[in-house]
Specification:
Length: 211
């Protein structure tokens, strides 16, 4: 079993998914996300010039937030993310080569899983956290059922169909971390637009966790 890099102790375990963000706008968007309370963010590698965006964001905000890439599908891409300063690796699947590369570069990892088999493989391969994806298909009840057989210290995340409308249901199911995508950011949104959705998401999470 690969020794994992521990999931960070953050105030709010919310990962901002900036799919489609462009290099010339990433710094303004990351700045407003940090200002509103986000501490983790990913630029999916199917975004325009993703490595340029990740490098710019890491150079300016790497000390203030955990920044990296999503949709990481190969070990080579994982290494490239680390080379430009990324410290977070998020993927839609469990690829042991990618996880091994991420571990060798000291990256926090959150691979996508959907079944107990995938979840245990990810943990055995050194995942920092599990990303149940798409969470909307499993739902809180499905995640809770799988959660019951996983190690108690496993960090459980939910991505896909998660928003400020259902934080509480997933938290009750044992979910500890969330990836927020189109409900938080969509291509074409301005910095002002992102501030509105970010503030709404932060407020909703704080209400849900306080229940």
């Amino acid at each position: 079993m690969t020794q994992p890099i521990r999931w960070p102790a953050v105030k709010r375990p919310l990962v901002a998914i900036l799919r489609g963000v462009k290099p010339d706008e990433v710094e303004g968007i990351v700045e407003v996300l940090i200002d509103t309370g986000f501490e983790m963010m990913e630029v999916p590698l199917n975004s325009p010039e993703p490595f340029v965006s990740i490098e710019r964001a890491c150079k300016r905000f790497g000390k203030d937030a955990l920044i990296g890439a999503g949709t990481v599908l190969t070990a080579e891409d994982c290494a490239h993310v680390a080379d430009v300063g990324g410290r977070l690796m998020v993927s839609p699947n469990v690829d042991t080569d990618v996880l091994a590369m991420a571990a060798s570069r000291g990256m926090v990892t959150m691979p996508g899983v959907f079944s107990p088999t995938e979840a245990f493989l990810a943990l055995r391969s050194g995942a920092s956290a599990l990303k149940f994806f798409p969470a909307s298909i499993l739902g809180p009840a499905g995640i809770a059922a799988i959660r019951a057989v996983l190690p108690k210290d496993a960090v459980i995340g939910a991505v896909g169909g998660v928003s400020d409308k259902n934080f509480a249901d997933y938290i009750a199911a044992g979910v500890q971390a969330f990836g927020l995508g189109s409900n938080l950011y969509r291509p074409g949104m301005t910095v002002a637009d992102v501030r509105v959705t970010a503030e709404s998401s932060i407020a909703a999470y704080d209400r849900a966790i306080a229940r």
